[in-house]
Each structure stands twice: as structure tokens, then as C-alpha cells.
Amino acid sequence: MVRYLRLYLHFLRFSFSRSLEYRMDFWFRIVMDCMFYAVELIFFTVLYQHTDLLGGWNYDQVLIFVAGYLVIDAIHMTVFSNNLWWLPIYVNKGDLDYYIVRPVSSLFFLSLRDFAANSFLNLVIAGGILAWAILRYPGELGTSNLLWFLFLILNGNFLHYILQMYFMIPVFWTHTNRGLVMAFFSATKLMERPDRIYPKWTRRILMTIFPVLLVIALPARVLFDGPDPLLIAQILGVTAIAFLGMRAFWNLALRNYSSASS
Amino acid sequence: MSLSLFFHLVNLESRKLMSYRVDFWITMLVNLVVNLVVLWALWTAIFAESGAEIVGGWDLPGILAYGVMVFLTGRIVRGGDLQMTISTDIYDGALSRYLLYPRHYAITKYAQQVGNVMPDLFQSVLMGLVAIPVLGLSTTATVTPLSVAMVIPTILVAHLLFFLMSLIPQYIAFWADNVWSLSVLLRFVTMLLGGAMLPLSLFPDQVQQVLRWLPFVYLFEFPTLVVLGKVDFTQWYIGIGTCLLWCLVIGTLSVPVWRRGDLRYTGVGI
User: Fold this and answer.
1) Which residues contact A69 (CB under 8 A, 6 or more apart)?
2) Cβ proximity of B70 and B221 under 8 Å
3) Could you tell me the CA-to-CA distances from B261 to B53, B250, B251 in Å, in that order?
4) Does A50 touch chain B (CB under 8 A)?
5) Is B239 part of a structural domain of the chain?
6) How many domains does chain B have?
7) What ipTM goes with this model?
8) Which residues, including other chains, have CB under 8 Å from residue A21's CB and lie 6 or more apart?
9) Residue B268's pLDDT band (boundaries 50, 70, 90)?
10) Which of B34, B49, B203 comes nearest A46 by C-beta?
11) What are phi and psi of A236, to 5 degrees?
12) Residues paired with B55 in a beta bridge
């Protein structure tokens, strides 16, 4: 464990020094993400000009929900996004060889090696928006609700990564997964809306088979309605099963990997 | 550039894209299902929870029709995945090859962009045939043969405008190594201010007045209103004319950027 932590600190150091080489891109990315945050907030602000509730949530609640989603997106962009972008390229070029022969978990190495330091500032901004949304909330939010919410946001982020991996791993067989990746990004729209707007069966599917509602919508429910042990167990249980499935899928893919360079 | 060469490039690009058939169908299917589910769930909830029968001038089937149509026309207007090719050509030195050709680089890229749109056009027509009967009848929007005929040139002009808008951010690649963020930024801004995320009639009145003076409205909302029969003939040709004027303005603005960038270009990688 300590070895992995030390390795991750090295990843961070390399990533920060590399990102400072491309300063203009550094600032472009910050502006881009800020615009994304503004667009998401404006979208819901305009909707709430025409209704008081959406999926049972008022405007103050939906602001926290959206801010939570922005934090998850910022963590994903900072920690996982670059790594997942490179994965199909490594597989197709045979560069994966360099990673699977190292004496550490290949999944760990390939998922976390590149820390997007230029997105890190956006994570701070998204965190600021979440803090602002929580502080301006007129009702009472209990400390335990808040702690569970923050923990479940981290869990949601992990689940988001796991779900994306399910769409990335088929590249070992198909050699192009552009369609699948585009499909995943389309499907993430489902998590950007309050869960209660969906009909009963759609909601069930989105909480179990393709559990995108567990990423942020249900953690937000825990914040507003209190920590329901059953709901929390469901969120953590589905995440654990999804992770075990993804790891088995990854190992199967590695067994089928034939280096392109050899 | 001769028309036959232009259409040869269009044909070449379409066939290249169609060679990835599994990607093509997966993207189409998931996009259609997800968009229909989100659209239907969101607007049904808004109409139910607000208790209103008309929101921003639309009834429920009308706003669903708007959502589907703006998604279908928007895919064509945005035009495939060529948004990064210009900056990539500049970055990896492939631009040198094009500079040797006796054709203007931007027109060659536009022909490729049009070729990239053809599979999207095919998909959009297919999706429309599936989605429109599901939506039901609206009192605020109707698709007629005339509105379908009017929307074809509207989309072509909107597509040209989007291509020209994305030129300047791409040309920034002459000065910066990575301009992916700028392309995505343009996408966010145009989607929101062009009416791809919401009909602009839902925005506050003062904001709407400002948005009418900007070019974004001609990208997504205008073609959608045309196909839904919400634009009469006079409004239509004034709209097309204004959109062409914006094309001229933005195209003209991109020329000095190209010239300065071209002088700076070093053709790394060749």
C-alpha cells in the first residue's frame, strides 16, 4: 500500500512539471471547464423560471445536486480522464507491454499514471461552487448527512470510472472503441438530471444494471433526506460488485491481449 | 476548387467514416435512446410539477418535438468529428502537404467536413422516422413537406456558419500546442446560446433580445423552428440572409488569423 502511495506521489510530481510546459493549454482548460460549469448552472436556472420543483427538488436543492455533479466531473477530469484517453492507443500500438511487465498492478498504473494538473484548479473551483451551494441552502443540513454526501461523492466518482472502464475494455477485442466511448458519454447525460424525473422501471435500471443514478443523484437524496442505511448499502454494494466485475473483465482482456509490436 | 473535386472529397470522407460500421450504429442507437429518455422524462416532469399546459410558448408534445429536432439537426450542423483536424494538421506538420496542393486549405477541409456530415444526415433521417411518430400531435409545432423542404438549405447554411466559427479556435494551434479545450468551449457556448439545450423562448425576455443579435441562434434554433413550421416564408429568407451575412463576417475575420499563422508555421514532423 505504501509503495503504491509513493508511486502515486511520483505520478503527481511528473504531471505537474509536464503541465507547466504547456501553459497556454493550462489556461484554456480552466476557461473551458468554467464555461461548462456556467452552462450547467444556467441550464437549471432557466428551467426553474418555469417550475418550482423538478423531480421533487427545489432550486436550492438542485443547485447542490448540480454542484456535486461538477465536483465529480472535475475529479474525473483530474484523476482519470487523460489515462482513459490513452488506454486504446496503448492497446492498439502495443505500448501496453511496458505497463504489464512492471511489478505493480497494471490497472492501477494505467488508470492513475497521468494526473491532469491543469484540471486540478478546476477541481478547486468546482469544490468552491459546491461549498457556495451548500452555504446558501436555506434549510438545515445535518453534519452526518453532509459527511455521508461527501463520502458518496467520492464513491460516485469511483463508480463513474468503473462504468467508463466497461466501455473502454472492449478495445482489446474490437481495436476501435470510439463508438462505445461516444455511447458512454451520451449515457452520462442520464446522471445529470434528478433521479425522480424518470419513470419507475427506468429508475430501477439506472440504479442497478447501469447504475448512473448512484453517482450523484442518490448521494444528493442522502444529503436532503438523511442517511438511509438500505440506500447506502445499495450504493456501496452495487459499486463493489461493479468493481469486481470490471477487474475480472480487465484480467480477461489482458489474457486476450496480443502485443501489436511483437 | 472545381465542384467535381469538392464532391470527390465529400465522397472520400463519407466512405472513410462509414468503414467503422459498428461504431456508427452503436453511437446512433445509444444517442437516440438516451436523448429520448432524458427529454421525455425532463419535460414530462416539468409540465407535471408546474401544472402549466404551455411553457415558453410550447405544449408538451411541441417541446418534445423541438428537443428531438434540435438534436437531429444539430448533429448535422456540428458535422461529425472533424473539429480537431485542422489543429492536428498544424500540430503534427500534416499541413505542409496541404500547403503544396493547388487548392485552398480551408475549402479542402470544408469539403471533408461536408463528407463527414453525410453519415450524420443518414442517421438523423432514420432517427427522425423512429422518433417523430412516438411524440404525438402538438398544437404548437407541425412538420410539413414544405417545412422539410425549407430546412434543407437552412441546415446547409448553419453548417457552413459552424465550420467558419470553429476555424479561428483551430487556427490558434499556430501559437498553442493544444487547442482541444477551445473547440469544446465553442461547443458549450453554441449549444446553450444557440438553443440546442433549451428553446430560447424559455430564457428571460431581455436575454432573448440579446441572443437574437448573436449568430448562435442560426446554428440550432432557427433550423429547428423552420422544420417545426414556426417560421413563415419572409422570416425564413431574412434568417437565411442574416446567417449568410454572419458567415461572411466570421469568414473574413478568420483570414488575417490564417495569414499570420501561416507565416509562423514551421512544419514540424516533416
Assistant:
1) A40, A191, A192, A215, A216
2) yes
3) 54, 17, 15
4) yes
5) yes
6) 1
7) 0.86
8) none
9) low
10) B203
11) -70, -40
12) B58
Distance CA A96, CA A260 (A): 9
Report whether B130 contacts B32 (CB < 8 A): yes
Distance CA A80, CA A98 (A): 19
Helices (H) and strands (E) in chain B, counts: 11, 0
**A-B interface: how many C-beta pairs under 8 angstroms?**
118
Instruction: Determine the straight-line distance between the first and last CA of chain A, rounded to whole angstroms.
Output: 33
Are B192 and A42 inside 8 Å of each other by CB?
Answer: yes
Q: What are the tens digits of pLDDT across the range A116-143? A: 877 788 899 999 999 999 999 998 888 9
Reference A191, options A209, A208, A206; nearest CA is: A206
> All 3 cell numbers of residue B43?
419535460
- A223 residue type, one letter: L
Hey, is the C-beta of A36 within 8 angstroms of any chain B C-beta? yes
Instruction: Sketch the domain layout of chain A as residue ranges.
Output: 2-256
- Assigned C-alpha cell, B234: 419572409
Residue A262: per-residue pLDDT? 47
- Contact status, residue B61 vs residue B94, Cβ threshold 8 Å: no
Within 8 A of B182 by CB-CB distance, chain A residues are 28, 32
Residues of A in contact with B56 (CB under 8 A): 50
Tell me, what DSSP letter sits at residue B254?
H
Q: Which string of b and e fits B15-51 if b means at least 16 CB within 10 Å?
A: eebeebeebbebbbebbbebbbbbbbbbbebbbebbe
Consecutive H or E run containing B27: helix B21-50
Residue B251 contacts residue B161 (beta carbons within 8 Å): no
Q: Per residue in A55-113, pLDDT tens?
A: 999 999 999 999 999 999 999 999 998 899 888 888 888 888 888 887 778 888 888 88
Alpha carbon distance A115, A113 (integer Å): 6
